[in-house]
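Weekly puzzle thread! Below is a chain. First person to post its structure in token form gets bragging rights.
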Amino acid sequence: MAEIIQRDGTWTYLGDTLRLVPGRDKGVSLLRRTLGELTVPLTALAGASFEQGRKTGRLRLRLRDGADPLLQATGGKLTDTTDPYQLTVESDRYGVAEYFVDEVRNALLLDEVPTSPCDTYLLPGPAVPLSVSAGDGTASFDGEHVRLEWNWKTEEAKSSAGTRVLALTDITAVEWQPAVGLENGCLRFTLRSSSTKAPPKYDPNSIELWGFKKDPLMALVAAAVQARLPHTTPAPALEETPPPPQPPAEDDHDALLRRLRELGELHREGVLTEDEFALAKAAVLKRLSG
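Winning reply:
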């Protein structure tokens, strides 16, 4: 087992699953706090990484394409702070974060987990029923029907027809777009029986989003619907040819030596067990000799 506890949240690796619990700090995003604890099967992962910063670092999990309906519905548009698969790490826990990454990477190699896209969702998506009010309306979903209700800010051309009730069986696609700059975002449903290219402001099957605090919560509605639609595997991204391996730089050598010292301190403090320390130390020494 490997665990890292931060104000931003607690991540625990349990062998065949990872438990991601958002923190209670006021800086934790509303979307992550509302989504709550996630249990991620190891088979849903494509990789893990840790990026050091001057004051804080960022621990990231990369999921296989098509494994999570939330990521599929949002299309990579979640920000770093709203992405539930990213964790802010304080500088005094960089060694623990790197050890956590090593443990997950080793497990992915030992279990021979593929990085190819999934043909079925490996996470269930947000629980239903749920309801979110943001932008020019309220979207509710009970597992079978989406209900769109309008508020006083809705354009009359859209609100004049009244509340919309969309059957899940009539929905062919759902998308969530955040507001970016002067461009408004939206939660949009594409229907089998009708389609429109109207802007979200006038589209009766869309809720327009203006970049306010609750906008990301509409992504939960999108994910809950996405989880119940026929699974579609995203097209794989084109991979660039990796550059030839370079010999370790002096900075890399110094960083590995610092990490050895950090691991020793964690071991002395009781954060790492004897076995955990031995495994992490062996991994660092292997990189030093390589």
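Puzzle host: Confirmed. Bonus trivia for everyone else. The first strand starts at residue 2 and ends at 6.
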